[in-house]
Amino acid sequence: METLISRLTASFGMINAWYAMIVGVLIALIAALLGVTLVLKRFSYIGDGLSHVAFGALTVSAVLQMLFHFQLPDDMIIVLPITVIAAILLLRTGQNTKIKGDAAVAMISVGALAIGYLLMNIFKPKSSNVSGDVCSTLFGSVSILTLELKDVIVCGVLTLIILTVFILFYNKIFSITFDEDFAKATGTNAAAYNLLLSVIIAVIIVMAMDLVGSLLISALVIFPALSAMRVCKSFKSVTVCAGITSVCCAFSGMLLAIVAGTPVGSTIVAVDLVVFIIFTLIGIIKKGAKA
Amino acid sequence: MALLTCTNLCLGYDGNEIVHDLNFCVSAGDYLCIVGENGSGKSTLMKTILGLLPPMSGSVVTGDGLKQNEIGYLPQQTAIQKDFPASVREIVYSGFQGKNGLRPFYSARQKQIAAENIRKIGIEALTNRCYRELSGGQQQRVLLARALCATEKMLLLDEPAAGLDPKVTAELYRIIDDLNQRYGITVIMISHDIDAAMRYATHILHIGKQVFFGSKQEFENSETGSRFISLTGGDA
Ligand SMILES: Nc1ncnc2c1ncn2[C@@H]1O[C@H](COP(=O)(O)OP(=O)(O)OP(=O)(O)O)[C@@H](O)[C@H]1O
Ligand SMILES: [Mg+2]
Asked: What are the helix (H) ranges across chain B?
């Protein structure tokens, strides 16, 4: 007990642990809010898919820089737009999409990964080693415990913007998620809101991927939404419950990770999983009580 | 000027024509039933009227102060998933979404109208229930209340009674008739139930190999009509 507390206080003496807490909780919050819509639109795996796209884009950027001998100040200049475009293409639903949800995500994800790996092998850019990059897209290139103040500020501002947009467009997001055809027929500009949603999602995923890795971002999108859907009965309560659950899981997961010295991302996912199981049991008991 | 006028309308998907040269119009207060075999293009016509599908040629014109996005709509099969968590109230409110433009929230007036519509349809007791836990008939009524929120003038119903038992079906037809008679809402309904069509409708549109449009009496007296009625057992 003594050592646990001392380890905690020692960690929180470090400013980095605070940064990690803040960023982790913020990303957990917005990922969960949008996760509800994504799960319901059958795009649960979009986090994973888009992070593969980002990996492909990263290799394209590296190869271009090598072939044409120039240096970009930040790879994001290429990676972010490509990922946003991929998100738009994926979420652009409607009458003309012949390949739907899960298959489209899988196709883009596998395709981008393969192209990226192929480019890496053909051109062999000096700057990067392939396995290192694959690993860092999965678990984050910046370790969450080595964040700087700059990262925290960027993350805070983005969260604020996304939260505001989400609240202002909440009713529209509900309409196009629940019944897109009805929304369109009665005059809602579903295409525009889908576009908005895609851009937000792509930005979150690119941002979160760099900080916490695609494994964690996929989990943050899926688990809180599914947990909330076990026990809540309206869209609003599911959204609120997913947000709160996600924040609590991220917070306690990070505490656990610091205390037990386990990897942060996988500890949070483990906590999310446990909460999902608990919520599922509560859901079953509630149903049983009613019957 | 009619509420809705379709002239020389040809419908289809990807260049394949399904319905050729359709002409009809709907005036305020009408109750139009669209009948025809499976696959004859009834739902396609409905999607075209709603602007979800462009016509191959011809035109759909709304008039008399009706805008295309002021048509309430009850789809044949909703793509709504079984596990979607939404309360009845949230769904009924979403009927107003198209009118709200960029305004983020529903107004107090809209919530009041929604409550009235819920009462008209007789689902007050379900307001706080979860949509996915309702029976098929209850779900249809919720979607009807939502459609009412989207319109004051015209309802488009695609086989509203599909899959419902005779009692619930009769109840639903009564509600729709009530909306038409008492509240003056123009109804366009697709139905395979020729009895109900002959009982409630003022006009009939038959599409398929033979196209017919006219009042109920004209339909009964026409060759298409008498054949269709005898074929589908309209003796009740
Ligand atoms: N999305 C689509 N793409 C291509 N063809 C379609 C599409 N939807 C329907 N069709 C075709 O259009 C024709 C008319 O379909 P529609 O759904 O309008 O029939 P319907 O009259 O509503 O039939 P039902 O009574 O079974 O509802 C059918 O032959 C169908 O195969
Ligand atoms: Mg149909």
From this structure: 42-50, 88-93, 108-121, 136-149, 166-182, 194-200, 216-221, 223-231
